Description:
Distance between the termini: 80 Å
Strand order of the largest sheet: 2-1-3-10-4-11
Largest sheet: 6 strands, mixed
Number of strands: 11
Shape: globular
Number of domains: 2
Amino acid sequence: MCLPRRPDRARLRGIVASTAAFVALAVAFLPLAARAEVSTVRISYGYGILYLPLMVMDREQLLEKRAKAAGLPDLKVEWKTFDGGNVINDAMLAGALDIAGIGVPGFLTLWAKAKDNPAIEVRGLTGMSSSSMYLMTRNPQIKSLKDFSASDRIAVPGIKTSLPAVLLHMAAAKEFGDANYAKLDPITVGLGHPEALGVMLSGKGEIDSHMASPPFSYVEDGTPGLHRVFNSVDILGNITLDITFTTRHFVEANPKLAAAFVAAMEDACLLIANDRRKAAEIYNAVAKVKQPVDETLKILNDPNTKFSVVPDGTMRYAEFMARVGTIKARPASFRELFFAPVSGMPGS
Length: 348
């Protein structure tokens, strides 16, 4: 009987290499939706109540539950902390993040730069939060924006592009006119909210003012020697402050996971609406704050504090930023800024 000749090792290695090359080439030409979705997703949130839905999603493992129901049972979620539009955008562009919570202005800055570039294009996944932000100061001479001088310093998480910085721009434009929207930029200082709170409470250092988000704004507003210059809601209305976003590539490569994230965000917002005390307990635990749960609950019970997947007022920022030239591309509507299904919702 004639047995087939056993291939030698060199020939066997050649066959294996050729097969591997063919498989790699075949995978490369598979439609994105046909490939396996990621098994690990990296998501970031920043400091403060505005990121509460992501904290709830984290603590309650809402994304893992939604992913399992969508046929992705082994999803691992890595939660990271980034704050300030520039920092978050740099992390996204560097490939260190898949999904991020961010202030609307920081998102718009990257959206405008990346528009029509498939390699780095970004859009919003969901709306997330709205609340009031306070410009606080310990300088007794300051009653309005007109009273700030070159000797004052205002803390914001990121200069020029962070949410507090752009809200300050919008308030300055209303006070001094669009041409002077950046009038206060020379006296702004980049400093995270927790650090800025510490400086304001200490009464020391050159920083005497803080464009603060909750809960930091509430703590400062209740502290003797500090007073409020303005409430953002009084000037701009109760519009969405923070959203979540990702890249076009991520959504196209991970359609089930992207849909699961939107559903998990809806779950988180519903939990906050239905059980505010539990939501307050989650915030205190995740944020590691020492204030009583009842103090956090006061913020959640504030009529200005809202959480929703549907964005409201994002075009207010876009129109302002395009008008003063801080972004070069102007979206036609909020639908251009978000992926489906949120782009089809009754937002603005």
